[in-house]
Amino acid sequence: MAKKTTVSLEGAVKTDAGVTYKGVVLEPVVEKCEGCERIIPFEGENFCPTYAQPSRKWAHGVCNFATHVRAEVDKTGAVKVNPLKASKRAARGR
Ligand code: SF4
To answer: How far apart are the CA of 74 and the centre of ligand 1, in A?
Structure first.
């Protein structure tokens, strides 16, 4: 089984604009991110190390980095957001 990498925001600095990490300002995650395994808590808020502005990531559809949901196009061509089951996540090695 793949070993889980622990990501931390060590060295991040909280500023008025958000949390600065390696020169990038991270904005807090949005409601739709809830359940995503990439979320990292930092000083009472949750951040995404993969995408600095989660709200923008979700503004035009489903976040393609999300580990908890996946976008699928149904027969009518409409985009559906499907929660990923834990077993499927495990099968993906996460
Ligand atoms: S990867 Fe996407 S869904 Fe997950 S926390 Fe980051 S922005 Fe949110």
So the answer is: 23
Q: How far away, in angstroms, is 19 Cα from ligand 1 center?
A: 16
Amino acid identity for residue 56 in this structure: R
pTM: 0.76
**Counting atoms of ligand 1 from 1, which one is nearest the CA of 37?**
4
Average pLDDT over residues 29-50: 94
Task: Compute the CA torsion angle 61, 65, 70, 76 (nearest 10 deg).
Answer: 40
Contacts of residue 86, Cβ cutoff 8 Å, sequence gap at least 6: none
